[in-house]
Write a structure and sequence with these properties.
252 residues, alpha/beta, Rossmann fold, 7-stranded parallel beta sheet, 9 helices, 51% helix
Length: 252
Amino acid sequence: MKALITGASSGIGKDMAYYLDSLGYDLVLVARRESLLENIKKELKNNVETIALDLSIEENVYKLYEMTKDKEIDFLINNAGFGLFGLTINTDLDTELKMINLNIKALHILTKLFLKDFYKKDKGRILNVASSAGFMAGPKLNTYYATKNYVLKFTLAIYEELRKLGSNVKISVLCPGPVNTEFNKVAKGKFTIKGLSSEYVSKYAIDKSLKNKLIIIPGFSIKIGVFLTRFIPTKLLLKFVYRIQERKNKEK
């Protein structure tokens, strides 16, 4: 068994690598920071290959696929991504476009290319990392929420296509709430809600994915919150989300 994990140098991706290693998986770990990947590799017991690439650059995404398409990947985990707090009139456009390239375009390309390969073999598994943000619009974290909406809906549609085709290929989407990772530092904000540990979220996500769970939401309070969004009027929900972002945003 072999898994490919993007965004594997820290946080959820890193902890997924440790957990899958404990389950006997060989790994292909992908991230920008080669030194961090090599440190992780030293601590794992199974076969591990590290690939240092910035997947916000489109040509690198295709390069990654060409490098790994013949490595008998069984499990693709699209985890790479980041966010950016702030009002849309103030946030940096180039950073937002880089976020779209990484959170959406890279995930879309890898999902599609490996999905076609998996479908031909009639086996394989994909786990796309979205967020509970994927169920809502996100004032002051606007682009990030929008990208995670894309990931969620993209994954759900593929699930139904595979079901109708009678395929044995499996796909899941992880939608956590706040998780204790580097997200806050990169996004320049701070969560006021206590986050779950990355170790817990990673193990929960892998276990549920291996049981063919479609939408994976760790944490009872987040499950309830996502459920309640179905019944809250849109404008009221927007006010509520804005207030949450206002409390955690460092922007002056």
